[in-house]
Amino acid sequence: MTTLRTRSRGAKILAGLAGIATAASLASTLPASASPSDHPSRPGHITLTASGTPVGAVKHVWLIILENKSYDATFTGLNQNSYLWKTLPSQGALLTKYYGTGHFSLDNYTSMVSGQGPAPADQNDCPVYADQQGSVISDTARQDGPTTDRGQFAETGAPYANPVPGGANEGAHGGTGCVYPAAVPTLFNQFDAAGVSWKGYAQDLGNPDATGPAHAVNKCGGPGDPSGAGVTNPGGANATDQYVPKHFPFPWFESLLSNPADCSSSQIANLDSNTGGLVHDLQSEATTPAFSWITPNNCSDAHDAVCAGNNLSGAFDNTGKPVYAPTGKAAYQPEATTPTNYTGGLYASDLFLKYYIPLIEQSAAFRDGGLIDVTFDEANPPFANSSFNDANNPGSTAGVSTPATAAGYARSDAAGESFDTRHGPVSRAFEPTGPNTPLLQDANGNQVYPGPGDSAFIDRPAALTGDPVNDPMYLRGGGNLTPGARTDSVGVGGITGTNTIIDPNVTAPDAGRSITGTGIPANACVGPVTDAGPRFDTGSTSAPVKPASNPADKAYVGSFQVVDCTTNSAAALTGDVPSVTLAAETSATDPLFSSTIETPGGGDTGSVLISPLIKPGTVSSVSYNHYSWLRTMEDLFQVAKGDQHDEIPAGAGSVSRGLDGRGHLGFAAQPDLRTFGLDVFTNVRGRGRGGFDDGR
Amino acid sequence: MTSRCRAGQRPGISCLGAVLLACLLTACGTSRGASRPSEPPLGFRSPPAFLPGSAAPVDRVVTASAAHPQLAVQGVGVRVALPAGGVLATVTGPHVPPFVAPPPPQVTATFDISLARATGDVPVRLADFTIRDQLGRRFHPGPVAHEPAPPGAVPSGRTVTFQLTAAMPTGEGRLYWSPSGGAPIVSWDFVVEND
Fold it and tell me: Which residue of B has its CA nearest to A509?
């Protein structure tokens, strides 16, 4: 049996807590009717965390993080009445406005556990696993404003330390690396200092890899040694190992990597290990960590639409119930049973949740102040209430939609950073980008480029008059970076009198762009686009000589109908077409082409929390994001009581006290940031009155 | 059997003792589940009483019709009711090519479509399938090259499977099926991932 590691200094801190009557700045002291023996505060009072829960009431947290689904996709409309959409919210609280903080994956994970803004390479899921170079900003003169970067890590030469305009590392794809240095603390360092036990579980961690480079080489689950030039970071799953490091926060911080104890088997484990996995640890409250981070694999987290390996579909009986002890198989090893299909997406994540969450709920630890939190890293796409494509004009013709309006999107300030705060919807910046991804504003104060982070799915102009948009210091859009004019000539063909042009490079987003060239009639536009395929004669890397039948080396056959720009009716070619020039994209041809449109950051993913402290069926529409989540964990576990008070560096706070002296790291210390409150923990008062029923 | 402390009773020694006694009498959390493989055999008890039972239907097969179109998720069958019959329609995917760096602006997305348990002849026309992405852009999926084209109809009692493909950017989308040629009766939500 594994015994949780509790450090002596943590035990000392906990012992010291017993004599503390009030929690000063961290918690408020309010009258309550709970027995004084419940909490060591003065008679008649209990000490509450910033969330409104009594200190110590939340004893165990399980964070299960899924991938890339918007709130709309997960919690509305789908016909299968999924376990995640229907069952889990009925057991706890559904947060309808819970936002990610960036794109595509990794920056969300690093922000969640450290409060750091995204680094460029993190936004690109870190193709090369390498250390970042730079330092933590310690300028105390910048500490009070909501846009402060104090405590944030700034890459050397940042912003955009390694921009090569037009090159592969341009814009959000630049940077010096993606592993934060030891000077950047995490929630887990705070737990260490406060004596709070924790563990990171990852499904498939350490599995052999059927193909490609090893996914987990170092003991925190990283793909190798991040020093120097680093190593290639495998971003996808294979048949035997669907774990991907970009979805596990631990290997991205030297503050954990450099401490062997933090990457030991007692802290980092394969989810299904029979000696230290989740089910093993749940068997006794003594072996259940106070905080459990659970990363499903690239299939079970809904990332892959078609799974490379087992999706757990074989681990259920004909009625849809999990089979925990299948005949001839080891108990609690769902991947030991051959799957019945390889469907991924929310189908697969439902299987994962239906298998594991009942086990957590039936554990002694859950009954004793447990909190299950199911969330997503980002919404993909990021738009709330428009992910079913109906926010844009579905009645448009020729594949051209009308420009999207801000009405369908999350509210934000002029810099695209705010969603909501306790003082109003747009009063203070809520999702700052950090020092590595500055946002340029135009002369009217409108954000030129999307933010925060590499906000995908937003297209921006290639240039704005009067603005230094080509300055590589500034972040460009995550969508089409340069939607300017383009001439396609390789493989292009059209015959006089017809209205179809073969163009291997044409794609659906080109619809609506005006076209010119030999044989093309006046006032012509790209009409419906057809990209048929796949074709298997591409040159690719294994066949550098492109076949004559496929000179553009495309995996599909592209073509489009020529239409009159005004009437959208088919227009005949006036001659044979050897090439075609497509005009630059405009707001009329791209529904999200704008220099001023608001951006919803990482997007609304929604989140579900289940706990004895939450009334089943609770719904909260308060806006939260990953920084709110971090702040909540820091408050619930009182990390400010820890014993690591050394400044890192001077002026940038400490591990235990955070940036604000109250235990909040990085942007979790924003003065206006919300902690999950009584809109989430709706059963706290009942417990205080002694009327709480925890099912014992 | 579920053992509970009385409402309002603080968990104390007497209450915990009652729970332990009840567990001993009922073998809760020990060997009970070993003979019932759908339930955890060791170390777990019944769900806490405060958690509501699963009243909401999960994984049911719903029926889509012109009067009641349905939004579906991949992998879950939808019964599509047509004037002259019906079929259980299931879509999975999209399959995408292996990741290459730098990521291409779009990838070939291929969907597997199963039309099963047909009653009456169900027409299958490629033009009845359309895709719209999260920006409202319309795509027209086509057959996979070098693969047999889907039949024109699903004969009664038969099952037909085929693939459709389109080049799409990453992000979310919906695949629509309008088997009656008019408004879509069923659509499937999906996400294109190329990493």
Answer: B137
